[in-house]
Amino acid sequence: MKKICLAALLMVSMMAKAQSIGKVQFGTPLSEAKTEITAQMGNPSKATDQELCYTNKVFNGFKWNEIHFFFKDGKLNEARFYMNVKNKAAAKVQAKNVSKVLGKDNVMTEDYEDDGTPFYAGGKSPDGFGHLFTIFVSPRAGRWTTQLRYGPFELKH
After folding, report:
1. What is the pLDDT along the chain (157 residues), one digit of tens a residue?
2. Helix or strand or coil: residue 43?
3. Cis-peptide into 29, omega within 30 deg
4. Are strands 24-25 and 20-21 parallel, antiparallel or unpaired?
5. Rounded to 5 degrees, what are φ and ψ at 71?
6. CA–CA dist 24, 76 (Å, integer)
7. d(CA 1, CA 83)
C-alpha cells in the first residue's frame, strides 16, 4: 500500500511539473503569474494584460533572443521562445539540443517536416490531450530561428 501511495504521489507531482513552465502553471491568473515570472526572469521589456515580453534571457540553459508569455481571459495560456541562429543547419542543431534538455523531464517525440527537418514535441498539455510544447525550426523576420512553443491552451477547467 505504501508503494502505491508513493507512486501516486510521484505521478501527481510529475503531472503538475509537466503542465508548467518554470514554476508557473498554465492557467495561473495574470497577477500571480506576472509576480512569479518576474521573480524568475526580472522585469519584462514589455508588459500588458495580454503579454509579458523578455529579450536576451537564459532559460533552461539556453539564451533566447525573445520570450513571450501570453494571457487569455486573464490566465497564462501560451509561451513562445525565439533563438536567432546563423542558418537552418544551426537552427536544427539547437532544436536537437533543446529537445535533449527538455527530454530529461518530459516524454519527447521526434517527427519530420515534409522537407526532412526534425521537430520535437513533449510533455502533456494541461488541456488533457496533446503535447505541452513543440520545438521546431522556422524562419522569422528574415532570420532562421529555433523556436520553443508552449500552447496556446484552452484551459476549460
Report:
1. 443 333 333 333 333 344 788 889 999 999 999 999 999 999 999 999 999 999 999 999 999 999 999 999 999 999 999 999 999 999 999 999 999 999 999 999 999 999 999 999 999 988 888 899 999 999 999 999 999 999 999 877 5
2. coil
3. no
4. antiparallel
5. -125, 135
6. 9
7. 47
CA dihedral 87, 91, 94, 96 (to 10 degrees): -140
Cβ-proximal residues to 112 (8 Å cutoff; 6+ apart), any chain: 118, 119
Rounded Cα distance between 87 and 91, Å, is 6
Cell digits of residue 136: 521546431
- Alpha helices, DSSP H only, in 2-156? 2-18, 30-41, 88-102
